[in-house]
Design a protein that fits this description.
The protein is α+β, with helices and mostly antiparallel strands. Helices cover about 55% and strands about 5% of the residues. Helix 21 (about 560-575) runs antiparallel to helix 22 (about 580-605). The longest helix has about 45 residues, at about 630-670. The two termini are about 30 Å apart.
């Protein structure tokens, strides 16, 4: 900025009142936290062009070395934080920065755990309203205890530096994932929505309205995959005052705000449900609900228009759920986050996950009742026995089927018909691996993806275990009726049945082992339970599963090598634009990820929890011995080295997570024929 311009801006700033200056700083802070700044400023500065000019001037210079102080953190914030908290925490590296402050990765010295420390920008800490907002965010988070809500450990102020310590999540935000991958698979989107809705239900029960549900505030844990809700900075506690969000102040993010937030009306739980539905819309389509609307019209448009319909590729059940959550009239939305979550789980799991406790035993009840009836009926119609005995046995055969029917009739039905509950009742047991009617299989069953050899073995074994007992019973019946031994064709049929089953099973195992599968993997593939489980993602098994629709089997989400395989197959199949470049980038990413794996394994091998505990105990044991001062010093040096290796391991793990996220984005980009954005980010990441 030139000297004349700097003087003009300084004079302009001296003319504003303290109230006006507070308003400017607040809008700048919120704009820095908002992805679509243009849309935000259109609404925040509506009717006040002078305010917009001042804010845009500050924002324009916020990234430069000559930035105006209000728009950027104080220089040396990392050093200030280290000076203030260094005794308790080892500050490792920045994780991110927003309008209110920065977040750092740190190691808590006393508990040897990694945490995230959020720091309020020193210039904002000068204003009481910003300090109170920061304090309230910590206070609200501290009241909530839920696996899906980022936990808060402590809050404090040291030397004018305001901070709070929270749980550390290694993994991208949902916003990062959507930016790289675009639309998510429906099952993954529904899972994330259900987990966030569960966390929201906890917050709503505590009287907390989040008011800023958006992809950037949903973190995805790399290890568990669980979605976690974060940033309660503008939340509202029902029944409490809201002086920090007075009239005229924007509360929320434009693309995900509910209509009542846009109007400045009072909000309740259903406002969060609207925003969460908008997040679901973005996950299913790859874009915000009103992405095609100009920034100037975005706010009034969402008050007077519904979001465009979801594409036909989204199942009707899920589309209805999302559409209802985004109704402009709050009374038409889901009444609670729990109801929203239950509807999602019914659409995903065929109602199993939301059956009431009285019906948890419903799956497999049908097969049990059927087998009970058949078994006792066979006994009743054997050759020997009186008529009275047969009647008694037939009555016994009806006991379980009648109980099954009464259970279905009297059970609570959470939005399901009698026929739907009956279908759930005839699901096979989770351990079942043989043939079963396709319409009665569980929704997550892998039968359709098994190679034909795996299905053939199961069909043959199922027929064998049914026909062999039937043949034995017929043989006995024949002997009783005729009084002679069974004819030769009987013996021949039984022999063919047994020999044929042995040949089919042996051939299938030979085929499986010849494909490089281990014996354990072969058993899983050919006779194991077909319910979806982590074992089906193991290297040997996953390679022989049939491809999903599209011609290329989707990669295992956690395997970088499998992503390279899938990208290579898709490039060879369809020759997309940037195909060769994308495949080369995938191979470079794989090499970097494998290098990270080697380093992580090496570091964890010598810097394990056990080694840390052993050295700590040794220091404590020797500390009281005056003659062991030299030994204590040596062990302390070893302990410090182990700690530094653990920190390095976490930094490398964080980098590996980012690289794997880029690999996933590259796969999504190759599928969509648009990979340039990911290629640019890969280049930047590898340069770093």
């Amino acid at each position: 900025m030139g000297g004349r311009a700097r003087m003009a801006q300084a004079r302009a700033l001296t003319l504003v009142t303290p109230e006006r200056w507070a308003q400017i700083k607040d809008v700048v802070a919120r704009a820095l936290e908002t992805a679509d700044r243009t849309a935000f400023l259109d609404f925040a500065c509506a009717g006040d062009p002078a305010l917009r000019t001042e804010v845009e001037s500050l924002l324009a210079h916020s990234a430069g070395t000559d930035s105006f102080p209000v728009a950027r953190p104080a220089a040396g914030e990392h050093t200030l934080l280290d000076q203030a908290l260094g005794a308790q925490y080892e500050i490792i590296r920045p994780l991110g920065r927003g309008g209110m402050g920065s977040v750092y990765l740190a190691r808590e010295r006393a508990l040897e755990r990694f945490v995230a420390i959020k720091v309020l920008r020193p210039d904002l800490a000068e204003a009481a309203e910003h300090r109170e907002r920061f304090r309230r965010e910590a206070r609200v988070a501290a009241q909530l205890s839920h696996p899906g809500i980022l936990p808060l450990h402590t809050f404090g102020e040291v030397g004018g530096l305001w901070y709070f310590v929270m749980g550390y999540v290694r993994g991208p935000s949902l916003a990062d994932r959507l930016r790289l991958e675009g639309a998510l698979l429906a099952g993954e989107a529904v899972r994330i929505l259900a987990e966030v809705a569960d966390a929201l239900e906890c917050a709503h029960r505590a009287g907390v309205i989040h008011r800023d549900i958006k992809p950037a505030n949903i973190l995805l844990d790399e290890d568990s995959g669980r979605a976690m809700l974060a940033d309660f900075g503008i939340s509202k506690v029902q029944g409490a005052g809201d002086s920090l969000t007075a009239s005229g102040m924007i509360v929320g993010t434009p693309h995900f705000m509910s209509p009542e937030q846009v109007r400045g009306s009072a909000v309740n739980e259903r406002s969060d449900i609207y925003s969460l539905g908008a997040v679901g819309y973005a996950m299913l389509t790859g874009r915000e609900p009103f992405a095609g609307v100009s920034p100037a019209e975005l706010m009034p448009w969402r008050v007077s228009h519904d979001a465009p319909p979801l594409p036909a590729s989204v199942s009707p059940e899920v589309a209805v759920i999302i559409t209802r959550s985004m109704a402009r009239d709050p009374s038409l939305r889901w009444p609670s986050a729990r109801a929203f979550m239950d509807a999602l789980l019914r659409a995903r799991d065929g109602a199993l996950a939301v059956l009431p406790a009285s019906m948890r035993d419903l799956p497999t009840f049908g097969p049990y009742a059927l087998l009970w009836s058949i078994g006792w009926s066979i006994l009743a119609f054997r050759k020997f026995g009186s008529v009275g005995d047969r009647v008694i046995l037939l009555l016994v055969a009806l006991v379980v089927p009648v109980g099954f029917a009464l259970h279905l009739w009297n059970s609570e039905r959470p939005g399901l018909s009698f026929a739907e509950l009956s279908r759930v009742a005839f699901w096979p047991p989770e351990w079942w691996g043989m043939w079963w009617p396709l319409r009665l299989r569980r929704p997550t069953d892998l039968w359709a993806r098994l190679p034909w050899q795996g299905r053939a073995v199961r069909r043959v074994l199922s027929a064998f275990f049914v026909l062999l007992p039937v043949m034995i019973l017929l043989r006995q019946r024949f002997s009783l009726d005729v009084g002679e031994s069974q004819p030769a064709w009987f013996v021949a049929f039984e022999s063919i049945l047994m020999v044929g089953a042995v040949i089919v099973v042996a051939s299938a195992f030979w085929w499986s082992l010849s494909r490089g599968l281990s014996l354990r993997e072969s058993v899983r593939l050919l006779v194991g339970a077909t319910v979806d489980s982590p074992g089906w993602n193991e290297g040997g098994v996953v390679k022989v599963l049939r491809a999903e629709p599209g011609g290329v089997r989707a990669p295992d989400r956690d395997s970088a090598a499998d992503h390279v395989r899938a990208i290579g197959e898709l490039v060879a199949l369809s020759s997309p634009v940037f195909g060769t470049e994308a495949l080369n980038a995938a191979r470079r990413l794989l090499a970097d990820i494998e290098a990270c794996d080697v380093e992580i394994a090496s570091l964890r091998g010598v810097a394990s929890d056990g080694e840390l505990d052993r050295l700590s105990a040794q220091v404590a044991l020797l500390a009281g011995q005056s003659s062991a001062a030299e030994m204590v010093s040596l062990v302390e040096q070893q302990l410090d080295l182990v700690r530094r290796m653990r920190v390095r391991s976490e930094v490398v793990s964080q980098r590996r997570s980012a690289l794997l996220n880029l690999m996933r984005g590259l796969w999504a980009g190759v599928q969509a024929g648009a990979v340039q954005l990911v290629l640019d980010e890969i280049t930047a990441a590898q340069a770093f």
